[in-house]
Amino acid sequence: MKVALTIAGSDSSGGAGIQADLKTFQALGVFGMSAVTAVTVQNTIKVYDIQEMRPQVVYDQIRCLFDDIEIHAVKIGMVGSIPLIEAVAWALNGIKCPPVVLDPVMMSKSGYRLLKEDAQQALIRNLFPLADVVTPNVHEAQALAGKEILDVETMRSAARQIFEKGAKKVVVKGGHLGGDYSTDVIFDGNRFMELTHRRIFTHNTHGTGCTFSSAVAAFLAQGKDFFDAVKSAKEYVTGAIENALSIGKGRGPTNHFYALYAKAGIS
């Protein structure tokens, strides 16, 4: 069985972060492991507080796993401060790395800042060179590219600018643009591809970004090439959103095991 490692924060509500990543890995037939960067106090309504792990502990989690186990892909999620970013880079720089997917998590849906303002350049400087794929949503892509995104054309321009900052491949997710259709822009440095799907109108979208990036990592671990991995991840997360769960009083989570539940006759 292929193995994937997620380096990210814990979501106490179970819909995003480490929990979403591990569920995604397992749903897609990949054994999941984790290095926890922070513990969040959150539910489906909002993020209330964050306690970061000591950078040395994050470094040690990563290195002890690579010392023991063959890892086929890495997903990096919430690394909210410069010391954590540097610890992750320090750990991954010292090894022969498998494909790395970086989800540049900056802000929760409730508006809580997950990446400190002074850490954005450190993220670009330290982790972009290590990442095979960077997967920002529209808001994150605007911050990284320093330009407003209004449509698919400006998404393409932002993807190119993010590539020029050191990302090897880029996926700009268009879910936040609105409209009846949602388009993701994929760029490998040479050619663009667009994936368009009719928008699924649901309030329950907690953890979609984490789920998508960990799905890309899972498919890369299984040997798919970049474009096939992204297309397969898009299909998976679309199904998870279509079957999202109405849990809690806020934004419920996507349904990571929808295909398995369907086979088992669980609704």
What does this structure look like?
This protein has 267 residues and is an alpha/beta fold. The protein has a single domain, classed as Ribokinase (UDP-N-acetylmuramoyl-L-alanine:D-glutamate ligase), CATH 3.40.1190.20. It is 39% helix and 19% strand. It is built from nine helices and nine strands. The strands form two sheets. Strands 3-2-1-4-5-6 form a six-stranded mixed beta sheet. Strands 7-8-9 form a three-stranded antiparallel beta sheet, sandwiched between helices. α5 (138-145) crosses α6 and α7 (208-221) crosses α8 (226-242). The two termini are 28 Å apart. The relative contact order is 0.16.
User: Beta-strand percentage?
Assistant: 15-25%
End-to-end separation in angstroms reads 28 Å
> What is the C-level CATH assignment?
Alpha Beta
Question: How would you characterize the largest beta sheet?
Answer: 6 strands, mixed
Structure summary, number of beta strands: 9
